Amino acid sequence: MKNTKQRELILSELRKLKTHPTAEEFHKILKKKDNNIGLCTIYRNLESFYEQGLIGKINTKPAKYDGDLSSHSHIRCISCGKIHDIFFSVPINKVEIEKLGYKLQGYKIEINGLCSSCAKTKKRREKNV
Questions:
Q1: What torsion do the CA atoms of 31, 23, 18, 59 make, to the nearest 10 degrees?
Q2: Could you read off the pLDDT of 38-77 as tens digits, one per residue?
Q3: Which class in CATH covers the domain with range 70-129?
Q4: Which of 5, 21, 23, 74 is least enclosed, having the fewest CB within 10 Å?
Q5: Is 1-69 CATH 1.10.3720.10?
Q6: CA torsion sign, 113 to 115 to 120 to 125?
């Protein structure tokens, strides 16, 4: 694909973020830098960058995008949907994977739980019941 200023802006700004925005959330962020950038342009380029392996994608509804390609996983709040990066190693049994006929290329783990804010809210609700 042709390298345009908007494509460069999309990629560089996503890589700066520590959050995992949806295309619409990212559009709001980029409108402050380039008022002419359209939502369709954001969607098209995020998907293209993901397909090229330049960014990550978290398969939520709607999808969220990750500009950090370092080796990490995610923890997601099952109540509010907030996502954070987590960095830890997990022992992977390569022998078991190879027995299935696969060659391990990498892995990502998504952990689900309640963030501290949602846990406090849940505790308050349970207290009031």
A1: 180
A2: 999 999 999 999 999 999 999 889 999 999 998 889 999 9
A3: alpha beta
A4: 5
A5: no
A6: negative
d(CA 80, CA 114) in angstroms, rounded, equals: 8
Tokens 């049994």 — which residue? 93
The token duo for 111 is 């952990």
Phi then psi for 109, rounded to 5 degrees?
A: -120, 135
Give the start-end residues of each E strand in 20-109.
56-58, 64-66, 73-77, 83-86
Q: Do residues 66 and 58 lie in contact, with contact meaning Cβ atoms separated by under 8 Å?
A: yes
- CB count within 10 Å of CB 64 equals 22
